[in-house]
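To close the chapter, one final illustration. This time we ask the reader to focus less on the individual chains and more on the assembly as a whole: which components sit near each other, and how the overall shape emerges from the parts.
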Amino acid sequence: MEATTILPLSLDQLPEERWATVTDVAMPADSADRVLVLRLLELGFVPGEQVRVVREGRQNGGPLAVRVGHTTFALRPHEAAFIHVTPAS
Amino acid sequence: MASSSARPDRIALLGNPNCGKTALFNLLTGSRQKVANYAGVTVERKEGVLITPSGHRVTVLDLPGAYSLNAVSTDEAVTRDVITGHSREALPDLLVCVTDATNLRLHLRLVLEARRLGLPLVVALNKMDRARQLGITIDRERLSRELNLPVVETVSVHAHGADALRALLDEPVSPGAPSGWSAPGFEQVMATQRDVQRIYRAVVTEPAVDRDPSDRMDRFLMHPVWGFAVLALVLFATFLAVFSGGDVLTGLIEDAFGVLAEAVSTRMADGPLRGLLVEGVIGGVGGVIVFLPQILILFLIILALESSGYLPRAAFLLDRPMSAAGLSGRSFIPLLSSFACAIPGIMATRTISHWRDRLTTILIAPLMACSARIPVYTLLVAALFPDDAFAGALVMVGLYLLGIVAAMTVAWVIKRTDKERQRSPLMMELPAYQWPDLRSLAIGLWDRAMIFLRRVGTIILALTIVMWALYTIPSPRRTTEATPIARSLAGELGHALHYVFAPIGFNEEISIALVPGMAAREVVVSALGTAYAMEGDEGEVDAQLRERITDEWPLATKLSLLLWMVFAPQCLSTFVVVKRETGSWKQMWIMGGYLFGLAYLASLITYHLTNFLTAA
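The assembled structure is written out below.
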């Protein structure tokens, strides 16, 4: 059986405990958001990196603990939403 | 150019937060450190001296941790300004970029960024012991070639872990050619990251693991149910340790000061000088130093939890509840420190990048029940429930909770008045768990003890003497009063203040005692003793005072003062720190004003409501 095609999604929608690859990081128009996204890039959320959500409390608007490389970052959902990922099959 | 090369005299340590930089700094400089002020963990600017193998003395500056020179927090801005020559600080002769060998993917980027500054630079691969345990190998020579920089390995938790770095500092360095710095844009950030990825792949070999050890702990400690259970347990154990452990040590200190007062009393002739020494200096200073154990126990626990990596997880768990009040989880650590003392708490807000969040945290930090409130709470609660320890303990817990609820409410109100309503960022690293480094714990604790004692030795000592003088010098206008205190200048001051405080049920003695309370809240207790002209050592005064308050003060007054202590803007040092950290007199007065308003209102309502209810 062929694996179904996996569509890219934003990091805040990635299920817990599932590895994914960063495909793209959205560059927003708003200047405050640009600062935020630039920092996300500097912290290592760049295309090609493997990420995984370790823990999340997003069903009630809580933050996500996201692992990238050997580091875990706590991100709020609106921060994670700038990062687009493709889940590993 | 060999002639212009020289051994470095001044170096600076640059590195990401959590790279083990502070532990390395402590290893390099040992006790030869100067801390300008209260130190949050790597928040304050610290300088020390190290000795190279050939005996050369080198000044070491420990820069605040920074992920990037493209600063988003005050901490990072300080670091950027120092190493780009935009501060009063002279440029260092050599920059040591400290990296975590277990997390080179993240930390290598700062090395590349720092390399562009044109300053002489060496790279320290720190935590090499841990990297080997994890099976990570780093081709140090290849890394050195790729970067065109010297690279040394360090282990900041081993006594000889920095020997290679020390030896390197005996080598001459050519002076750099500092080039200007400008904030990188999107393209440049991406280009740097591609370089990092390339170099990382070339020099680092690591076993393919699905989970780091920290992930397993995170699954449990950040669990929506178990995580909160563990957090509640940790907080409960912390406060238990502060109260029970503090009690034992506090008793010892009280005894020591009693013996000292006794010794001075018996060896000196009666007179004003003996009065000043025994009642003013020994009584006043001793009354404050007794809180040192409680403050230190709380700080020890906070330092240990912070360096183990647990506190950021607690902040993660609390982010959602705190965002309801308009704060983020980042405010948790500063607010927790404020239970020891608001001052280090306010200083710890420097890591909050969002100004609005930081300001809100600063403004509400004084509402956390700092340890200086404990003696006043204890005295009043004991007077309210002389025979019921359980009810007393419940009221104590209630007072702590009241402070927290008030703080969250104030934060919520501030958020409502914010017209911009920006979403505040969290973006916080959850560093790998580790055992706390004992040397750094000891140094951190020592720093805090010294800062506390310096405060006691200066401002509190001076105010104690001033107060003693006010109590001793008779006022020319009040010669007909009954007691010596009432005839003194302090009596006159209390009489004047009484006009302000009578509506909330405070008598003249309380009004007088609140004045030295501005130096430190805990002084209120000994000042009340003085105002009632009580004599004897601390324990005796305490007992007499308790009796007097139980018998003489109306219930409404006791409750009113208790509420006052929850909210009142107190301790001048807090004002000073708020002014310095916000750089604004306006914010300082806003804090003082709203706290005074809350305190007065709460006491007013409590006083009149109690009177109304007890009369009915």
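Strands of chain A lie at 9-10, 19-25, 50-56, 64-68, 71-75, 83-87. Helices of chain A lie at 31-42, 77-80. With these observations in hand, you are ready for the problems at the end of the chapter.
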